[in-house]
Amino acid sequence: MIIPITEPYLWLPVNKERPEVKLHFYQEGKKVQEIDVHLGGTEDSFYTWMDVRPYLGTELEIQSQAEKEQLYGIFCCKEKVQNVYPFRPKLHFSPEIGWHNDPNGLVFADGVYHLYYQWNPYGVVWGNMHWGHAVSRDLIHWEHRPMAIAPDDRGTAYSGCGWVDEENLAGYGKGSLLFYYTAAGGRNQWSADQGVQFTQRLKVSTDGGDTLLSTDHCILEHVIGENRDPKIFYHKESSAYIMALYLDGYEFAIYRSRDLISWEEASRLSIKGMWECPDLFQLDVENEPGEKKWVFWSADGYYVVGSFDGYTFTQESQVQMAYSTRLPYAAQSYAGVKDRVISVAWLRMENDRGNYRGVMSLPAELSLVKQGDSYRIKMQPVRELRSLRGPWRELVMEKAEKEGARRRSGAPFERLSLPLQGTPAELAIRWAPQNKGKTRLLLGNYEIVVNFARETISFCDQEKHFDTAIIPFCPRNPMSLTLILDQEVIEFFGNDGIIYGAVETGENVLRKVLTVESDVPIDSIGWWELKV
445: pLDDT confidence band, cut at 50, 70 and 90? Predict the structure, then answer.
């Protein structure tokens, strides 16, 4: 099929129920793109688009085993598809359309936070790994930018990181942005036909991150398995750039470079239970002034605390889990931020009714706190979120009769109802020391239960149990919990950030009534409306 490219965008029909087909795109006999798509026909789920501005005024040939009626649904258009979904999150980043997963290339440069991410523009399932791109000046309000990296003959574009080359070591200009990523050879037919394996490659931007140009640099040839997810930083004490790389199984490698181009292996480490998306960063210990520790991090939110000399990471703690729920994954910290460590995670959402799937967590600031002889990560929403707060509104719990259950002798039971106003909100609760009892928060069909007797927080709706978090708090001490309420998602931060998790909710929760019921005393409860 030949299509004259007369407009900037090629619209493609998608039907979630149709079988997946391959589309191969050629210009003048040379292959320029290949995608997998559940191509629609007469009955479509939605339309998506391909940016074909580089081919304006030419013709593209599409080769495929798809039915003719499906191919006839492809056409050029002046505009991108306007993918409007009324329940899209207001605080949390979501893609314009399609599937997204890991945050990539997180870098702060010239006052702009760049968020690249794993993206399938052609469906709401994993595949066709591109890098999408968005920018922000405050980590809250994001502007979508054009697609940054597309699959090619070296493979699909897996995860990676970004760096500002302030000294022009790589030779592309002072202040150029360098992007290290995994070319996943064999993950598209294009590269599989050539027998290409997973390699680490470099792209560069000299226009502020909008255009990522290929270089001739294969930073690392194939090492083993699906070696992937490079993450780099500068280690001042040993005067070298460091790359953490996932290898295979539970094994990782650390590489060193003086020029950001040539990398040599320095050491390997294996930590059972940790895999994918490594990160290595240093954190201040809040309650030990002047003390800093290194943290080695992996995709699930598992981490270990230790020391790092520029060559070897020495593990000094057991493996710990930063997350209380299973929704967050593949977090990455920002490069280029001097005064704090900011982490963003992918939230693995199930809802795809908006013709996209997955959102990002709120960016969080990380620190460590010492507890006895061990250290634990603390996570707090970035300070920029506070600028959205309206006036603080103290709420009052009122005495009520407990329905459908026998009250404990002498136990109080209190309730309040708070109609939400369609905007995100931040709810803060503080309890006196407790040994038993529960507080329940009901939001539409969604329920959150803080159970002091079992030391758990559980999350469920009317149809299925979602998650249970074991909360590391002492019933003899006060307990605090902050919940950030948004469309589709709630993030919670307990005991000043020692506890963190995220859960998916139903649609339109910001128009529901929040009910709080408690048979344990609540010291204080209140909320801020967050004006996005």
Answer: confident
> Around Cβ 531, how many Cβ atoms within 10 Å?
11
* CB neighbour class for 216 (10 Å; exposed up to 12, middle 13-18, buried from 19): exposed
**Distance (Å, rounded) from C-alpha 232 to C-alpha 131?**
18
Helix, strand, or coil (residue 118): strand
Q: Which of 36, 44, 51, 102 is catalytic?
A: 102
Ramachandran area for residue 8 (φ above 0: left; ψ -120 to 50: alpha; else beta): alpha
Q: With bands split at pLDDT 50, 70 and 90, how would you rate the model's confidence at 409?
A: very low
> Of 254-263, 342-351, 433-442, where does mean pLDDT reach its minimum?
433-442
Mean pLDDT of 191-206: 97
Residue 407, exposed/middle/buried by CB under 10 A (0-12, 13-18, 19+)? Answer: exposed
β-pair type (356-357, 98-109): parallel
- Domains with residue ranges and CATH for the chain: 2-77 (no CATH), 99-384 (2.115.10.20), 389-529 (2.60.120.560)
**Is 36 among the residues known to form the active site?**
no
Which residues have a Cβ under 8 Å from the Cβ of 29 and sit 6 or more positions away?
none
